[in-house]
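Standup notes, structure subgroup. Blocker cleared on the 2-phosphoglycolic acid input:
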Amino acid sequence: MRFAIVKNAKELAERAFLEIKKVLDEKSDAVIGFATGSTPIPLYDKMADDHKRNGTSYKDVRAFNLDEYVGVDPGDKASFARFMQDRLFSRIDIDPANTDIPNGMAEDLSAECERYSAAVKEHPADIQILGIGANGHIAFNEPYTKPEEPTHIALLTARTRADNAAAFKDPSLVPQYALTMGIDEILTAKRILLLAMGENKAQAIYDMVMGRDDTSCPAAALRRHPDVTVVLDREAAGLLTFGEWERAAEEREARQAAERAEEELEANESDEAADGETAEAAADEASEADEDAAEEDVDADGAESEDGEDGEEADTSEADDDEAENGEDAADEEADEQDDDADASEEK
Ligand code: PGA
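Run returned:
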């Protein structure tokens, strides 16, 4: 999992667009998995703007969307079909015949799920854009969904319905059910690009990266995927422990500097003639310590931003594993607490 931490929505869009452009440059007839929700809107604006200015073409691109409400007409402003049309497809040169989204108005919803599963299987995404729910859902795979479940009818949680109420005139009009691509189907994408902004996503991001390795946080399944880029603002990254790694690296450096200073002092205090060797050994040790400190810096600070902009990046694949293991007990406890919290808030 690679992380890019950005300052704002504009940077998020620019950073995310780099990933899309990379795919399109490699393959003009790429399959792109699209997501709806407020988070990818700046990316879609950026894609439309780039299409207008630079002529990046989508005419051979095939598009699949993750999910759709049951019982909402594709022409309805609250539908995800309409969202994609208004926010992106009508602004680029994609062929409407190459766009697909589950049909939540299908008479036979199970047959529609089967159709969609088969289509996704036939055209695995070259890149899948994802948002994340405050409860860790990806697409409408709510907590405790079995990853192997293919495209299916999902019962939306109260929290998800409340989070998605803005598109509806009345919160009570948010559908109870949606059709959603399954988790393992999402994981068939060659690359995954997950975007998240805001403090209300911080817990979900933490659970995705460091939480329990079970289905309580559906996004945690992304740990199994070899090519995931996560673009986050500082608020969404707020509970991750990049800061702890940085602090630990700084502390190690300070400790080593103090040890070096002590060794130098001892060397100076000793008899100069007899001390020649000791000083040399201390100098060797000090330079080894320097090298160690330099390595730790790379781990803690991560790779440079590819686009040379201000975003910070960190490839945490190894660190994730270690931290996830070390933090398992604490994470379990925390998760239990969260469960309690979630229960409490749902009851309200
Ligand atoms: P959001 O939704 O981008 O509107 O926050 C993300 C999601 O629920 O997957």
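Discussed briefly. Residues 249 and 296 are 6 Å apart (CA to CA).
Next: hand off to the docking folks.
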